[in-house]
């Protein structure tokens, strides 16, 4: 048994974070580079790695292939400098969905990954909004500095102007994007020069030069880097840990994940600066102490899309206590016991089952068909229940109808089930009636999953007709409903949690209506719950 002090010590060693980025910014590359560094640096003697960076994640991919489901969207665990790092994946690309956002309810910090040539991009902005709303501190890594891109100061300005986030650079690039000579380490003013390695298969060797040596070596680039940093310090860019934890400012690094440049520095920052797990608030707003009995909440459930693989994996983040495989826990939603015999180490370096896990860790529960996203699991007494699922601003809408009207009953049952699991949000209105609910989603993939499950689990094939809406706001005052319904390109629908959503074809349609009715109270929708 691990004692209470033992749990606190183990929790203190955990850093659980996610990378928020737009597709192509280099998230996969950075993930591999982080795991490579952690392994190479932690395993004494294995400086050149075993089989290079791809080897680190290959077990992961093989498992994915064998199971026929996307396991890459779970978590990777590795140790670095006596710290256990849990990197939770935020699926992007085509499967960008509410799942992507929900992962952020299971992390303690986030790394915002920017492409040096592109800066803030749409998916990054959406994910950042969720971090801000949930109070998740954000570190920033500017990637691809080895390629031509924007100026460092310009990227800093963009953060301030577009999202009100103060950059606090801890390194500053020497040489503009595309002519990466190294970085100025703000902590001691030294010049860190990297040696390029072919294909990034090994960690980049670093060499530190004093300021005088740097000037001789990098000349104007060095002088310019120093001047730019001074400019930034004058405008509030000095490092301040409190402002980072409060979500007002972001420590910033420059690098190139593909060359492993800047990656070690990022790992060090995670260890030294990123918050460790803290007591999670339960549904009554009471903090659950880290050393209380085991508790966790399910933030993701993955069902095999292939009919032959009906197995279901539930991913839960441990919030308190020690998880020991085989323990029987209670599902707070159903009050039923759940046996954890098949708990898995979540796809770290080995494909082993997990025997113990601590606050901050992610456990994968196999054959978990009884578990739903948002469920709380706990052991011992008293019972605990964490707040349910947050809902996010949907951007895609479709009317759902059963193709066979004689299946109306199964249809209703299935829609209720999918709504309560958060597969899609379910919206209705008196005008539309119950027979044709509207599905709302963050990403269109959610519709495919919903249609697939209605057909295969509820034997109720459905037709989905897309609606033209792209913008949603919360309607604060139900009395104003008719104002929105009277617009030709808008309507109000009520979500199962009782929130009235005002939907518009686009932002322009919304602005036009607001011009006619300036007292219309519309509020932004981010993460509630
Ligand atoms: P993801 O979609 O965010 O997971 O992006 P990937 O990791 O797949 O990277 C997208 C592309 O950018 C790939 O071709 C990478 O090789 C490339 N890339 C990633 N990091 C860097 C970098 O630091 N420098 C350069 N030049 N290319 C990079």
Task: Describe what you observe in this structure.
Helix content is 30%, strand content 27%. The chain is an alpha+beta fold and 529 residues long. It has three domains: 4-273, 3-Layer(aba) Sandwich (Rossmann fold); 280-378, Elongation Factor Tu (Ef-tu), domain 3, CATH 2.40.30; 396-523, 2-Layer Sandwich (Alpha-Beta Plaits). The protein has an eight-stranded antiparallel beta sheet with strand order 26-23-25-24-28-29-27-30. A seven-stranded mixed beta sheet has the order 2-3-1-4-5-11-6, with helices on both faces. Helix 2 packs across helix 9. The longest helix is centred in the middle third of the chain and has 27 residues, at 211-237. Bound molecules: guanosine-5'-diphosphate. The site of guanosine-5'-diphosphate (GDP) has 15 residues, from helix 2. It comes from Saccharomonospora marina XMU15. Belongs to the TRAFAC class translation factor GTPase superfamily. Classic translation factor GTPase family. PrfC subfamily. One of its GO terms (molecular function) is GTPase activity.
Short structural summary:
It contains 13 helices and 30 strands.
Task: Summarize this structure as a short list of keywords or feature phrases.
single chain; alpha+beta; Rossmann fold; Elongation Factor Tu (Ef-tu), domain 3; Alpha-Beta Plaits; seven-stranded mixed β-sheet; 30% helix; globular; cytoplasm; translation release factor activity, codon specific; nucleotide-binding
Distance between the amino and carboxyl termini: 35 Å
The CATH superfamily label of the largest domain reads P-loop containing nucleotide triphosphate hydrolases
Order of strands, main sheet, comes to 26-23-25-24-28-29-27-30
What helical percentage do the residues reach?
25-40%
Question: Which percent band covers the strand fraction?
Answer: 25-35%
Cofactors, ions, other ligands: guanosine-5'-diphosphate
Number of strands: 30
Specify the CATH class of the largest domain: Alpha Beta
Computed over alpha carbons, the radius of gyration is 24 Å
Which stretches are low in confidence, meaning pLDDT under 50 for 5 or more residues running? 42-73, 305-309, 346-352
Stated plainly, the CATH topology of the largest domain is called: Rossmann fold
Oligomeric status: single chain
Domain Tr-type G: 12-278
Binding site for GTP: 89-93
GO molecular function: GTP binding; GTPase activity; translation release factor activity, codon nonspecific; translation release factor activity, codon specific
GO cellular component, one term: cytosol
